[in-house]
Design brief:
The structure is a single chain. By secondary structure, the protein is α+β, with helices and mostly antiparallel strands. Helix content is 58%, strand content 9%. Helix 3 packs antiparallel against helix 4 (152-218) and helix 4 runs antiparallel to helix 7 (293-314). It starts with 8 loop residues before the first helix and ends in a 15-residue tail after the last helix.
Length: 480
Amino acid sequence: MFMIQSPCRRCLFLAGTLMFLAGCTVGPNYVRPEAVPVMPAAYKEVNGWKTAQPRDEAIKGAWWQLFNDPQLNALEEQVAVSNQNVLAAEASFRQARALIQSAKAGYYPTVSVGASATRAHQSSTLGSSAKSDTTTYTIPVDISWEADIWGRVRRSVEASRASAQASEADLAALRLSAQAQLAQAYFQLRTQDAQKAFLDATVAYYRKSLELTKNRYAGGVAAKADVLQAETLLKSTQAQSIDLGVQRAQYEHAIALLIGKPASDFSLPAAPLEAEPPAIPLGVPSLLLERRPDIAASERRMAAANAQIGVAEAAWYPSITLSASGGLETTSFSRWLSWPSRFWSVGPAVSETLFDGGLRSAQNDQARAAFDAEVATYRQTVLTGFQEVEDNLAALRILEEESKVQDEAVQAARQSVAVAENQYKAGVTSYLTLLTAQAAELANERTAITIRGSRMTAGVLLIKALGGGWDASNLQDTKR
């Protein structure tokens, strides 16, 4: 054990003065810029929107539960824990959080200690009378601390904290995107199941129709052409049913990827889509700034870029370093750890760059340009958010109207087939009339199913555009 003699009172006074001056922080304080010149009071496409009952102020965290599908709920729960892209984003967030502590290290002094034994031989040409070799034993302790007078470290910590929050919002945005992709793939798969169920039922009906036509041909009532036309319609419908298997398989494989499972080990039993899109609570446009994680991430990057301006400006000011060193030094190993072998030194140092070829000026311009770029990116992200909400509001409204009209078309097509079939059996019309009516019914039924699937997808995209169940208050303070 050894002790280093206390520094002089002047050094203590200087250290206290440096601590007092450390309250200065150069660079602009962050103020969030306006997202848009005038924030709209309501969405343009909200006219005629069906308000959720009961009236929720916001979508809850597990937003997919709005669709009341247990199978979808079970799949969505696996995204956060098994999706590899989400896990990679979570690791990036932990990395960004660790960088906060890395920046905070600048608040504290650097302390190093070591031990050395040096054997030296002096040149005989120096004219010294000492000709013998010498060994020096040293245990130095060095302390160095740069006072954060101009706030360089504080701005670095501020930038790191904002970047970590942006990384956390990126994680939430990626998770929401994966969840929305899963819901879209799921409803598209169920749409294929509905198409398949309808086509299989239609194939069974056409097979009976073919048998009827063959019997009429055998009885001399129908022509051979009627049999061939009936067979053509049957086979083409069978081909359409088989073709659905390609897209269904692809949707199933996409779901497997999103929940982190090999496509070969995952399958979903068929279940036709019968649900209707839920009523989705909207809120007001201003809430979008707090509800969408991509907007929050962009806003946090603005704050980080603003702090970097302060870091760049701090380079214009002199740096003040307080350093101290001490330890034990001797040429005798037996006296190495003795009190008389002690040495110490303490003192401040001030340095200022007088010429750097315009480096600091360029770095300052770069920091300000980076901030301006983040502001533009933030505003573009906000505008994109408004567009996505309006797009899907319009899609849901228009698809709902289209669905009603298409259902009427389906009913009319079914009646047309019934009338044409009765007339054909009675010999009033040709088989071509019945064939035309059946083809029209097939097309209209398939269109109705497709519209239903599109409505479910638009509902998912609207929830995603609204930010899902996320809120900016979920961002960690990251002050550890």
